[in-house]
Amino acid sequence: MQLQQAKMTVGRKPSGRTVVSRVPVVRVNATVAMPLPSSTAAQPHGRVFNFSAGPAILPVDVLERAQADLVNWQGTGMSIMEMSHRGKEFESVIQKAEADLRALLSIPSNYKVLFLQGGASTQFSMIPLNLAKAGETVDYVVTGAWSKKAAEEAKKYCDLNIAAKGDNKSLPPVSGWKLSPNSRYVHYCDNETIGGVEFKSTPDVGDRVLVSDMSSNFISKPVDVSKYGVIYAGAQKNVGPAGVTIVIIREDLIGHCRPEAPTMLDYKIHVDNDSMYNTPPCWAIYVCGLVFDKLLKLGGLEAMQKLNEEKAAILYDAITSSNGFYNSPVDPAVRSLMNVPFTIPSQPDLENLFIKEAEKAGMLQLKGHRSVGGMRASIYNAMPVEGVRALANFMKEFAAKHAK
């Protein structure tokens, strides 16, 4: 530590007399650098491979650009975090973010895009309050923890019908869904982050309004938005930093919010005010915009899907080729490209050791969700192929060392 010259401070005692005192300022010089693990030695800025389910990894070049803009955005003399959301500077940021997202997903003109707050969990309330009246029936498909929470919230406001239920390892076939004849909408979760099950196509629910929570696989693949009434996603998993929730909603579903609902839960309020009824999460929207811009330059969502399929294949192959040392509990037909849970079934006591040794090798956040245990690797868009290869190689080495 280095002790700087004492800093002089001025204050007042209760009597009103001015008091001058000296407070030592201590500065710590962090000069000791730990060597990087070999698996991550080539990563820029001393970074590790972060397999967190969310908040999750962001592209390094996006972080670098955000860092460059942090203090002075494009010569304005202000940070994005400082400028008024009503000013032309930030208006250009949010408008470009929306335009790029529309281009990525080919969003039809009769859909509105909103950048909201409150996470996907707030959407669990907004959707029934805007799309159904008290006593009307809504259909929910429960395939894991998040769709279960969404259904439990909807039950507070509507007549809830559980149209189908999964076992956290597979998905109930759409042909077997028991949909209500007059349901206001059908809700499902496209990718369950905890269980690692993912729909591989859009469910056909006829002319009913389809609503989907896409928080953990949003913009990981092309989606036909026209088949949906509402798509929503918390950004912190596959898009940007925590703090913003993206909603894509068909125009005819706007303007029907229950009068007793809080103003902030009315989609029309946010549509009429271009997502700026109150101060929006400016920094989070800005970073999401950088991610959208990057994906367009990489070739769009078709290119992203191809890369995600390649990464997932590497990881699932490491599991299936382990001669039973590792196990994926998920039906191969619905295994997620984003969230890969796995266990060591014959020696579960090794799982904590696996996580600790992986951390030493520069691969972090591999512990499974507290509700299921085991391990989980989240390999979102921003996870480089090199990170997945490093994990697969580590898995093979660990298995060779500990297999009986």
From TrEMBL:
Family: Belongs to the class-V pyridoxal-phosphate-dependent aminotransferase family. SerC subfamily.
Pathway assigned to this chain's UniProt record: Amino-acid biosynthesis; L-serine biosynthesis; L-serine from 3-phospho-D-glycerate: step 2/3
GO molecular function: O-phospho-L-serine:2-oxoglutarate aminotransferase activity; pyridoxal phosphate binding
Domain of life: Eukaryota
EC primary class: transferase
The protein's name: Phosphoserine aminotransferase
Segments traversing the membrane: none
GO terms of biological process kind: L-serine biosynthetic process
Cofactor: pyridoxal 5'-phosphate
InterPro entries (alphabetical): Aminotrans_V_dom, Aminotrans_V_PyrdxlP_BS, Pser_aminoTfrase, PyrdxlP-dep_Trfase, PyrdxlP-dep_Trfase_major, PyrdxlP-dep_Trfase_small
Residue ranges of coiled coil: none
Annotated GO CC locations: chloroplast stroma
Signal peptide extent: none
Keyword field: Amino-acid biosynthesis, Aminotransferase, Pyridoxal phosphate, Serine biosynthesis, Transferase
Pfam families: Aminotran_5
UniProt-listed PROSITE patterns: AA_TRANSFER_CLASS_5
Reaction it catalyzes: O-phospho-L-serine + 2-oxoglutarate = 3-phosphooxypyruvate + L-glutamate; 4-(phosphooxy)-L-threonine + 2-oxoglutarate = (R)-3-hydroxy-2-oxo-4-phosphooxybutanoate + L-glutamate
Annotated EC: 2.6.1.52
Residues in Aminotransferase class V domain copies: 48-391
